[in-house]
Design goal:
CATH topology of one domain: Rossmann fold
CATH architecture of one domain: 3-Layer(aba) Sandwich
Strand order of the largest sheet: 3-4-12-9-10-11
Helix content: 40-55%
CATH class of one domain: Alpha Beta
Distance between the termini: 37 Å
Bound molecules: pyridoxal-5'-phosphate
Oligomer: single chain
Radius of gyration: 20 Å
Length: 428
């Protein structure tokens, strides 16, 4: 498989080059040259396949012979070593729980796959790399845990000071070793801008051997397609009719991966793009105008993104047609108050604890299914305990802790929102 840039000016590359570069030179995003259709035999066997077996079938066509099958299967077995259950919430609504990994959010899947593929390639060519990443919360912790102690790779994480939860901060600032966290005096969009600028600075990106681990890296995004197949493999065949999948979204990597799974032949009838008040994409679906804006802070903070990076991939998949995109995807946007009310209501009605991100996805699905028949799955992207400050007051109960870091020291470094300072730091 070859990879091209959505801007069409950068050279076509291999999977390995796309993974190493992260971002093409023309500032687009890498996309696979075509989306392979999986054979009928795979879909017939789907219910009997394990998660890593599904993973091998899904990823193999995208990687070709660049990673030997046996190594790829090992990478996938390590990446997907936790369960991703489909849990019934009400009659026709299911939650795909993506939060049973080490950092209790779906980003573990992409981060662990990327770490292990990068490590495979870098060990082969004896080269030390620096992974540079901006985070609004969960990316940083997943990347930090995914790369921790991986040989030949240093990780530098930029996060907005005071804008992520204490739990998220602890997960990425207490590790040390090859993981450095820079606490930027600015917003998530500032962090993302600094990272983009670093990659576009040829001197810096070559000397520091920079690579990206954001959802813009193709090795972060593609493996997220795997769990859409796994979700459907857990549904009884008769319920697969008219299936709608609701994706609580920020940078839209997860939704893009779902669209790719659909193009590979997975019978998904419709997608919902659900956001908090950062509604750039739902507004685009409604109006055909794309208006990037500054992000607004919400309780579903991993989705506080005003200019989603994977939107260009979505456009690319629909040949830049607003009409085609809006036929396949409906957008919804919700306030914090609606999100909180939903956490309360679903707990009292269905005895299910939503996190604020999952609640946004649930809300969209509930609204869509009022006028449409069929089955709905929403992605539960984070463990509610990660956002217990928002969840516990609504359910009026204490959640069982999943992890504590009380005794660990933060090793984060306070840092100015200044590209030249960052460049100096990375070249030190
Ligand atoms: C990152 C994240 C999202 C948004 O995912 P995208 O792929 O960026 O759209 C949603 N929920 C949680 C918990 C996240 O960490």
């Amino acid at each position: 498989m070859k990879y091209y840039s959505t801007n069409g000016k950068a050279a076509i590359t291999s999977f390995k080059e796309a993974v190493f570069k992260g971002l093409p030179d023309d500032n687009g995003l890498y996309m696979p040259e075509y989306i392979p259709k999986l054979p009928d035999s795979f879909f017939e066997n789907l219910p009997s396949l394990s998660l890593p077996e599904i993973g091998l079938n899904v990823m193999k066509p995208f990687i070709g012979d660049e990673i030997p099958d046996e190594t790829l299967f090992n990478i996938l077995s390590e990446t997907l070593s936790f369960k991703i259950p489909l849990v019934s919430v009400s009659d026709n609504i299911f939650a795909l729980e993506l939060f049973h990994g080490p950092t209790f959010a779906f980003k573990d899947v992409g981060a662990r796959f990327l770490a292990r593929s990068l490590s495979y390639f870098s060990q082969k060519q004896h080269e030390k790399l620096t992974v540079l990443v901006a985070t609004s919360g969960d990316t940083g912790s997943a990347v930090a845990q995914g790369f921790y102690d991986v040989p030949n790779i240093d990780v530098v994480i930029l996060y907005p000071s005071g804008k992520i939860s204490r739990f998220q901060e602890q997960q990425m600032t207490t590790l040390g070793k090859n993981i450095t966290a820079l606490e930027i005096d600015g917003t998530f969009d500032d962090c993302q801008r600094l990272v983009k600028q670093a990659f576009l600075d040829t001197e810096l990106s070559e000397k520091a051997k920079l690579t990206s681990a954001n959802s813009i890296n193709i090795a972060r995004m593609l493996p997220q397609s795997i769990y859409y197949f796994h979700a459907i493999s857990q549904l009884a065949t008769e319920t697969v009719e008219e299936l709608t999948i609701s994706v609580p979204s920020g940078n839209y990597g997860n939704l893009t991966a779902g669209l790719i799974a659909q193009r590979m032949g997975l019978p998904i009838h419709h997608f919902l793009a659900c956001s908090n008040v950062n509604s750039t994409v739902p507004d685009y679906l409604e109006s055909a105008d794309y208006n990037a804006r500054s992000s607004i802070q919400t309780i579903s903070n991993a989705m506080d993104v005003g200019d989603p990076s994977n939107f260009v991939r979505m456009l690319d998949l629909f040949g830049n047609s607003h009409q085609k995109m809006s036929e396949s995807i409906s957008g919804y946007s919700y306030s914090d108050e609606e999100t909180r009310d939903t956490i309360k209501k679903v707990y009292s009605d269905n005895n299910y604890v939503l996190d604020p991100h999952g609640a946004v996805g649930y809300l969209g699905l509930k609204q869509y299914l009022q006028n449409h028949s069929g089955t709905g799955i929403f992605l539960e992207t984070a463990h509610p305990y990660k956002f217990k400050e928002s969840v516990e007051p609504e359910i009026e109960a204490s959640l069982t802790p999943v992890l504590t870091f009380e005794d660990l020291d933060s090793k984060s470094i306070p840092f100015e929102n200044d590209f030249n300072k960052l460049k100096e730091y990375l070249l030190r």
